[in-house]
Amino acid sequence: MRSYDLTELNEMSSLSRRTISDYVARGLLMGPSHRGRGARYSQRDLDALRVIPRLRTIMKREFPTLISVRDFLAELSISDLRHLVRLNNERTFEIEVRRIRLSCQLKTFLPAVSPERLTDVLAELTPEQICGLDRGHIQIGSLLDLDALTSDSRSNGNASNSFDHSAASSGNGFTDPRYERFGNSTVQVRIDRKALENQGEKTSLSDAMRNFAEQIETLLKASG
Fold first, then answer.
1. Which regions of the chain are under pLDDT 70?
2. Cβ neighbours for 66, distance < 8 A, ≥ 6 positions apart
3. Which of 12, 127, 144, 194 has a C-alpha 20 to 30 A away from that of 136?
């Protein structure tokens, strides 16, 4: 795959050398293969430089900080990034970004379901539904049968559990054995208090997920 020097990145992305270096320092780019004369940057870095300004303008609310952009870019495959670069229409770009965000969130909540199956499920949703889910205006369980998805995965031998209950609790987090409803599926309550306090930086999660966590914490406090 082709590589580029800093001058080429500057010319092809229309971003200054200083901005590119800052993005490397902040972890938004992989950075050059080596330092000094002849340093080369990857195609992924060029693609990221073309996507970053669009995330910061078209979806400023979802990506208010460079940290939020960095976290999103880290979740993208090379093919996802290339796909976003090719989208010229702003509305189409927004929908695809939201679809990718939803896919990443569902992978976390439904680890037993294959990425291919999640892609097929999201492809059946309308653009309005994709946007509504990512914005938190629509409850995910009202559109997707999460129990059926995980049941299908178990029948195919992908995993024995519907949801990931294996993450260890540490620091300011805690694990509660009680369960609450999320859409039409049951998930174990697992909340990181520190993450909630700093949720402004957790913009890679959708408003729906943050609201869900807040509601569960309120219920736990009320129940003593």
1. 151-224
2. 23, 26, 28
3. 194
